[in-house]
Amino acid sequence: MSDDFDPTRLTLLLNELRLPALKQIWPAFAERSDKEGWPAARLLTALAEHELAERDRRRIERHLGEAKLLPGKTLENFDFDAVPMISKAQVAALCAGDGWLRHGANLLLLGPTEYAT
């Protein structure tokens, strides 16, 4: 294998592998790695962590877009007094995780649709 490095080829490979975050960040990470003398495994780990974080960010952004939530609708400005059958404490516990999120459990909230707006 040749010691020649072709950054254009690496960019094309990352594109083909569908690693867009790596494609954008690798030059800065490689420069820092060279400067600080990182082992190859540390560089690869840092790049993989960045790619995963970006995928999570994009996934959340996509899901929020698909949910078509109204702008400004947040739990902070939800009028719990208008819907007394919804417990603010229970909703707060759900938002805090309360175990279900960590275990990847499904959460279904059922109720009359007139309160959805």
What does this structure look like?
By secondary structure, the protein is mainly alpha-helical. It has two domains: 68 residues, no CATH class; 47 residues, no CATH class. The radius of gyration is 22 Å and the shape is elongated. The mean pLDDT is 84.
Describe the structure concisely.
With 117 residues, the protein is mainly alpha-helical. The protein is built from 4 helices and no strands.
Set down the secondary structure blueprint.
Layout: H1 7-16, H2 20-36, H3 40-67, H4 88-95
Helix pairs in contact: 2-3
Percent range of helical residues: 40-55%
SS elements, strand count = 0
Shape: elongated
The percent range for strand residues is: under 5%
Output the keywords.
0% strand; mainly alpha; elongated
